[in-house]
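seq:
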Amino acid sequence: MKTWGFFAVLIGLLGGPCSAAEANVELSGTLAVVNKATDSVSVIDVASATVLAEMPTGKGPHEAVLASDGCQVVVSDYVGGDSLSVFDICKLRPLRTIDLAAFPRPHGMVFVGTSDEVIVTSGPSQKIVRVDIGTGRIVGSIDTTYGSHMVALAGSTGYSTNGAADRVTAFRLDSQIAYAQHPVGPRPEAIAVTADGREVWVGSNAAGTVSILDPQTGDLRTIADGFRWPYRIVFTPDESRVLVPDLRGGELRILPRAGDTPAATIDLPGAVPQGLVVHPSGRYAFQSLNLEDRIAIVDLDAARVIGYLPAGSRPDGIVYSAFRHPVDAAQTKTPGTTTK
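struct:
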């Protein structure tokens, strides 16, 4: 009886989501989520719905990315921190803080393949910065334009949204140059690029739209509208579905990338959905609920919330690792962490 089907029935009988400890019996692994209000990152065991540790970041953390080893997590300290905080979520310990005073307000990040390098946006300096998280060394930088905020990467070609310029900057890592400035909808923020690099999906905060940019021609095609703040754009692993949390609209919208499958909407009234990560299976997602201090477990096939996980205060950026902690990991206090 311990199957997702059983718990779907249980949800229907109870008239609402069951507890996370019950709902995620077939899910395991580890989440790391940024807590904006407490300048920290929480590490959560998915199977037991347990917060294993809460570790301090720099000031004003916003985004998080996971290295290919499934253990190293980098957090951008955006509001006053001007730094990157690096953690090992497998060993539950902070590793280092990387000073980015020369590139203030670091925000959107992505790892460069399986390397130890991340690229991160810096709006005030109008640059993309390339950082080796193992050594803390600045590898290089690329000029963008006003208001660089989020970034996406396909191979050696990347794209950043520049909210103050209504542009998407296209750049190449190998030559470290920006080669195009594409006009897009007003106040762009959310961005994602397909693995083949042929589609760049962009959200416009002012117009409330999600559009596809053809990076070869610069053509822009609106796919969905009616958003109040399309906060992030996240593909499922097979890129068949596109997930867009609407921060001000209080919903998570599931869009088909192609074909005739209808879009679906999950209502999250008053929750302020922000950071989002998809489970490798492609069926489930973990959605940060900023004003509820918790994470929703979403069944994408059923288009409904099936449970919740705890988080810290005002959660946003979130990553998922398949790493499984020992059952007694929550009892282990490591330097620089607070266990709960």
